[in-house]
């Protein structure tokens, strides 16, 4: 099916909230603890087809939320405008209302909402409408703070499985996401092999590197060093740990870009001056940019959630408890499209290639591609064209296989 | 001359202090301000020969000091023990007393103190015995704090020139250093072409990248966010901005290593535990290592000096005020040996290669070499063997040329 019109918008969307566990039922966690109640924020785009074979789950990265596509009817949340170098604006829409992957999800886009039922799920531990450290702890009547249990990517995915069941989806045509979203996609394929027909992990890894853990730890230290963090108990206070969170975000942001993209975008250009200021205010454009990123982030993110989510990322290791990675992957039934980016040094391509090799040795059907780009890790949000070609083809192929299977069964 | 014995130690050394400017004389600064008095800490190894042709200046990096080689008769200071993966220990000597480049400077070493008179100079702006923000401001009788003028690599080198003159050295056989030390070496070759016969910039750049500025700015923000920093006025207080400084050092340390070296050294190994702790204390070895680096650094470094020195690094741009880099380099008379390291992503090899190309186009005699290593930026402190081969040969060649010239003049 060739589309004649230009790709369009997923339209006006609202985030929905599903309380998937309520006492006495509770979500079992990898730590051994339990969580209840559990609410997940999510959005859906497109329609589930009659045989429920066209559902795709999209998972987001550290600072993302359920609003992945279309124009938000709500306010707040991450958006395309928060992305490093900005996605293209769409007509006269305020870019702050566009979903964080709006360039990839919509009619005629990579995740074509004319064909697929796309679910975008938020995560537990976050601060975007799902249960997290800023939620009310039913045992105290106050926000959890550090009383919130440490959660893992496995826990996030376990809760998403329940959400998908509530939406009537027993089996996903595909699960995809970039960065930590890619970790969730991988975890889905491993934890629920029967429920995942295909998997598109992007700019991600089967286990976070020592360097990645190191950056996460430094960011957490920056937050916990903020006197207003107050051991996580700050929700009812006037002063919030915004300075620490802002520094954490600045560190993170450097790791999302690349040496080359920073050179192209900023170089050594000075900010609003012709000569060095010989002071400790802003001299360079890149300093101004980072401060802006830090300052805008604190408007939309919770410091404790930053701690919990980076910890979940650090703990992510598909091989954990399985010995070798191959053991962890041995039950996988999904087909894979693994995408990485040449200048991504936070989740370097070699990690994706290792994963592809491990899967191939197990006989899994794997396509993997390293997209040449200067955008660094942020490329999963920005390299629309190259990703669209690969993802659209991969999904269409998988949908055709499902139809062939279903047709064969019907005969 | 082939040496038969193993390389030895530069011996027991003491740091010396030269007050090179005293009122009414003052060091003119690039900012337009002046500084007086100015003291520089320095050490020397080996003997100046009769025609004063064998002097080599060694310049240190951000956290270095004058104690580059031998065994310190003093206490404190950076040392070989502070280096990322540790230099080899020498006999029973406490490694904390060894100079930071002891593996490179000494009898029979790369900078052979049997042949050369090696001067190691500290920098203004620092906190290791030279005039800096923790020095007493003669106008107030109190430590300068932020009242200390912002200094540049040019200012550091201008003060070192004066020091060398005091030591009876009008012309250097060579000037060398890694990282910010390499910036000083380059600045020497550009600012004092007649005084520099050869230059060995290592793991450095002619101008700091946007990514480098970004990391420096985040580290400064971490320090300035510490409430005990108190706008730089903390010297007479009980509480010091140690937490901010420690976070800055942790960030810095990640940039000195490489993804590969961190994987080799730490991987995902847990610290004193078999399972994840599900808390926000230390889980991984790499976290423990970083915290140790942060905690030991605050014992030996001043937070304000960290601000001033990173600012000088940010401002370093040989082309500044010259238009193109080639214009800045056009007056250079030194021969160059430029060393870079394959896994150094803070001062990537391509920057050294650019510099080598620019010099060659000007007809300058340049050797450049990218040493394959996994050690990252720290390699300039650790890749002893490969550097020794190149540097020893380059220096011997240059000394022979000087002798031939002097012989020719004598005839």
Topology readout:
The structure is a homodimer of 411-residue chains.
Chain A: E1 12-13, E2 16-21, E3 27-28, E4 34-35, E5 38-45, E6 55-59, E7 71-72, E8 105-106, E9 111-112, E10 117-121, E11 136-137, E12 142-143, H1 153-166, E13 174-178, H2 180-191, E14 198-202, H3 210-224, H4 242-256, H5 259-265, H6 285-297, H7 303-315, H8 325-329, E15 335-341, H9 349-361, E16 366-371, H10 379-382, H11 384-410
Parallel strand pairs in A: 1-7, 6-10, 6-13, 8-9, 13-14, 14-15, 15-16
Antiparallel strand pairs in A: 2-5, 3-4, 5-10, 11-12
Helix pairs in contact in A: 1-2, 3-4, 3-7, 4-6
Describe the structure.
- The structure is a homodimer of 411-residue chains.
- With 411 residues, chain A is α/β, with parallel strands linked by helices.
- Chain A has a single domain (12-208, 317-410), classed as Alpha/Beta hydrolase fold, catalytic domain (Rossmann fold, 3-Layer(aba) Sandwich), CATH 3.40.50.1820.
- Helices cover 34% and strands 15% of the residues of chain A.
- Chain A contains eleven helices and 16 strands.
- The first copy, chain A, has helices spanning 153-166, 180-191, 210-224, 242-256, 259-265, 285-297, 303-315, 325-329, 349-361, 379-382, 384-410; strands at 12-13, 16-21, 27-28, 34-35, 38-45, 55-59, 71-72, 105-106, 111-112, 117-121, 136-137, 142-143, 174-178, 198-202, 335-341, 366-371.
- In chain A, the strands form five sheets. An eight-stranded mixed β-sheet of chain A has the order 2-5-10-6-13-14-15-16, sandwiched between helices. In chain A, strands 1-7 form a two-stranded parallel sheet. Chain A has a two-stranded antiparallel ribbon with strand order 3-4.
- In chain A, strand 13, helix 2 and strand 14 form a beta-alpha-beta unit.
- In chain A, helix 1 packs across helix 2 (180-191), helix 3 packs antiparallel against helix 4 (242-256) and helix 3 packs antiparallel against helix 7.
- Chain A is globular, with a radius of gyration of 21 Å.
- The interface between A and B is large, with 56 and 56 residues.
